[in-house]
Design goal:
CATH topology of one domain in chain A: Alpha-Beta Plaits
Helix content of chain A: 40-55%
Distance between the termini of chain A: 57 Å
Shape of chain B: globular
Bound molecules: iron/sulfur cluster
Helix content of chain B: 25-40%
Oligomer: heterodimer
Structural class of chain B: alpha/beta
Radius of gyration of chain B: 29 Å
Strand content of chain A: 5-15%
Distance between the termini of chain B: 67 Å
Strand order of the largest sheet of chain B: 1-14-13-17-15-16
Structural class of chain A: mainly alpha
Radius of gyration of chain A: 26 Å
Largest sheet of chain B: 6 strands, mixed
Chain lengths: 194, 520
């Protein structure tokens, strides 16, 4: 009998101690904000284009983390981003509806620009420079190709160009052998249905 | 020497150091006995704007301009870059994209120079005969101005290595005369015919980096080169600490890190340079070019190219001007019909397989090969399943596990491949060479590395975009807050009198607005 009491008492004491440690740990290692939102945000292409129906990548990440949005709405991210988010959230992948366009780049036809600054205000990543009444120009290395500057321009002087392919950015394709093709097809099927 | 024997020898202390793995492909050094011949001037020379590892150059000449041999025609942009010089005198006829030795088959902007036949030389660079008493920094600048880049094939700008850095004192200069790729003999001939120039070049390097010892490494399949270099060393007095080392032939012994380990037992850690372990390694061709640049005041405008292959009637070693079309070199040696042949730029193990012979000789062109289909073993199209024989791991000089890495790359498991040190792979091709299942292992690794690089680039761009968008949001919020604060101030000061804002305050407001516009 006393043996049983001892066992109960010591187990109880241990449980209390463990609870205390957990409580302290929760206070000490408390994280501000929702870590899931940041994790999803880190997977998004940060184009801030709004094609997902949200005003930017962070809002979309918040919606996905909160279970309000599906994982397949980011257009520029394409299938890879969708798979990564689904993997992170532990949910079923969903087919991406819209094909992403080839990477593009805004270009201001400078002699037509009237310097109204409207495109500057529209660009979510500050990729356009220029002062009022001076012609504006796009910093090619900063432009994400989101097209948000095209609409506001009152004189329609912004073109979207295809990004030039660079020799330095060329990369090797998969070897052209039967086995590599089979492996690749299998992988794509997997991504498609799962 | 088979791997087991070598390991045994190492264990018994008979061989000091030896890198793991390696293979013994057939040598095919058919042009080894052919003395270097000077190739004739081409009617048009084609100079791609980037012939080294690093930043591309920008053109200094305009169409129609007359240039002299050795005149700088493109200047370096950025630190890791060296200028390009006109290979002969003549007129710039056009500047446009031209195919280069690149697996993509994409072109590169190139300067086309039509020779005038005079071969008149630009004499602005003075020879430096008293280099022993010259400032190392000045000699280093000379190496940069003359456009020197590693002529062994890697074309890393030479001047970057030729540095005296207090934190990393250099003890040993290693001259790389290994030339372990099959077919190639350009370094072999250079050492045989220009031994004393190469040796003087080595003394220049020793002076520039402050090294005391020197090693000249040559494989034992080039006895004439070993003899010539030994003779040159013994003919020079002040060289007690320079040795010619003859190494048993093994591929990829000429790879920098493998060679350094074999000679000194020092391992260059991943991501570090030889200078971090007190060593500088230069190819013998580069060393000869350094001699020309300093002692003769000649920028890099020519190099030795081995033109060879089983489909070529007369294999040879040609001193060719940079920019000479490869087609002309093949034609000179009796090959004009390229149908059914594989043209290779460099050696067969690591070189680029080309779609055709329409590329110019560049600084990295150590060889141009014309191989028949049988020599190339077209077997790579019938990739078989891996039988886990382990030959590839045994052959890998970096001790990687190629079959595993290939599986990961094939399945796009790039994180795992990176964990298994994919980026340590030097793409030497030993694994593909030994694989009985004909798995194009190196090709998988190149695919994997390319995909990882692409993802990293995209990630970095996304990260930068996020920062830009966040700072924009923060700025907009700040401006809003400032405006609100101003408004409430205005209201407070003017509330008792009138509702309309005072003219002075309005002036302030617009001034602040202009400022934020400028801030952008
Ligand atoms: S579609 Fe994608 S890139 Fe565009 S805002 Fe939405 S999450 Fe960002
Ligand atoms: S410049 Fe235009 S297309 Fe480029 S990021 Fe800004 S708004 Fe988007
Ligand atoms: S190519 Fe890479 S994996 Fe294959 S043997 Fe060479 S270093 Fe090793
Ligand atoms: S050599 Fe080829 S078959 Fe053998 S283990 Fe390596 S990859 Fe597999």
């Amino acid at each position: 009998m006393t043996g049983l009491l001892y066992a109960l008492a010591s187990l109880g004491a241990f449980a209390l101690l463990a609870g205390l440690i957990l409580a302290i740990a929760q206070k000490a290692f408390h994280v501000e904000g929702d870590p899931m939102v940041d994790k999803i945000d880190a997977l998004l292409p940060q184009t801030q284009c709004g094609q997902c129906g949200y005003p930017g990548c962070k809002p979309y990440a918040t919606a996905v983390a909160g279970g309000e949005a599906e994982v397949n709405h980011c257009v520029p991210g394409g299938e890879r981003t969708m798979l990564q988010i689904a993997d992170l959230m532990g949910v079923e992948p969903k087919a991406v509806e819209e094909e992403a366009a080839a990477p593009r780049l805004a270009f201001v036809r400078e002699d037509e620009c009237i310097g109204c600054t409207l495109c500057i205000k529209a660009c979510p990543v500050d990729a356009i420079i220029g002062a009022p009444k001076q012609y504006h120009t796009v910093i090619a290395d900063h432009c994400t190709g989101c097209e948000l500057c095209v609409e506001p321009c009152p004189v329609d002087c912004i073109d979207m160009l295809t990004k030039p392919e660079l020799l330095e950015h060329w990369s090797w394709p998969l070897p052209d052998t039967k086995r590599s093709q089979i492996a690749h097809e299998r992988r794509e099927q997997h991504a498609g249905h799962a | 020497m088979p791997a087991t024997l070598r390991k045994l020898a190492q264990r018994l202390g008979m061989m000091a150091h030896s890198f793991p793995g390696g293979v013994h492909p057939e040598q095919h050094k058919v042009s080894g006995a052919a003395a270097i011949e000077v190739n004739e001037l081409a009617p048009v020379h084609i100079l791609p704007m980037k012939q080294h590892i690093g930043e591309a150059c920008s053109s200094l000449v305009s169409i129609g301009e007359h240039v002299l041999r050795g005149q700088k025609i493109a200047k370096s942009e950025g630190y890791v870059s060296v200028p390009i010089h006109a290979p002969t005198s003549g007129r710039v006829v056009k500047i446009e994209a031209h195919p280069i030795a690149h697996p993509s088959g994409m072109g590169m902007p190139s300067i086309f120079i039509e020779s005038d036949g005079d071969d008149a030389v630009d004499q602005t660079l003075e020879p430096i005969s008293d280099w022993q008493n010259s400032d190392p920094a000045m000699l280093r600048e000379r190496a940069r101005m003359c456009g020197l880049a590693g002529l062994g094939g890697a074309v890393f700008p030479t001047f970057i290595k030729l540095v005296r850095d207090q934190r990393f004192p250099i003890e040993t200069v290693i001259l790389n005369g290994i030339e372990c790729e099959p077919w190639l003999t350009s370094d072999h001939r250079l050492m045989t015919e220009f031994a004393s120039e190469i040796l003087t070049g080595m003394r220049m390097i020793k002076h520039m980096v402050g090294a005391t010892a020197g090693l000249i490494a040559i494989e034992d399949n080039k006895p004439e080169a070993v003899a010539a270099m030994r003779e040159a060393v013994s003919a020079t007095d002040d060289l007690n600490d320079v040795r010619v080392v003859e190494l048993p032939t093994r591929y990829p012994q000429g790879s920098e890190k493998q060679l350094i380990y074999t000679l000194t037992g020092r391992e260059v850690p991943a991501g570090k340079l030889p200078m971090h372990v007190g060593i500088i390694c230069q190819n013998v061709g580069t060393t000869k070019a350094l001699y020309d640049a300093i002692a003769l005041g000649k920028p890099l405008t020519e190099r030795v190219v081995t033109v060879s292959g089983d489909a070529l009637p007369r294999p040879a070693n040609l001193m060719a001007r940079i920019g000479t079309p490869a087609r002309l070199l093949f034609a000179r040696q009796g090959l004009e019909d390229f149908s059914g042949l594989q043209i290779v730029h460099g050696g067969p193990m690591m070189g680029e397989r080309l779609k055709g012979p329409d590329i110019p000789v560049v600084k990295s062109t150590n060889g141009l090969l014309a191989l028949s289909a049988s020599a190339m073993a077209a077997a790579h199209t019938v990739e078989q399943p891996c039988i886990r024989c382990g030959h590839c791991s045994e052959a890998c000089p970096i001790s990687l596990v190629p079959n595993l890495l290939a599986d990961q790359c094939r399945a796009d498991q790039f994180d795992k491949a990176a964990d298994y040190q994919l980026f340590d792979c030097i793409e030497c091709g030993c694994c593909s060479y030994v694989c009985p299942s004909n798995i194009p292992l190196v090709h998988y690794f190149r695919y994997g590395k390319g995909q990882i690089a692409l993802m990293r680039r995209e990630q970095a761009f996304a990260e930068a975009s996020r920062r830009r968008s966040e700072s924009r949001d923060a700025r907009i919020a700040r401006e809003k807050a400032e405006k609100a604060a101003r408004r409430s101030r205005v209201r407070k000061t003017h509330a008792p009198k009138t509702d309309a804002p005072a003219p002075a305050a309005a002036g302030n407001d617009s001034a602040a607005d202009t400022k934020t516009e400028e801030d952008r």
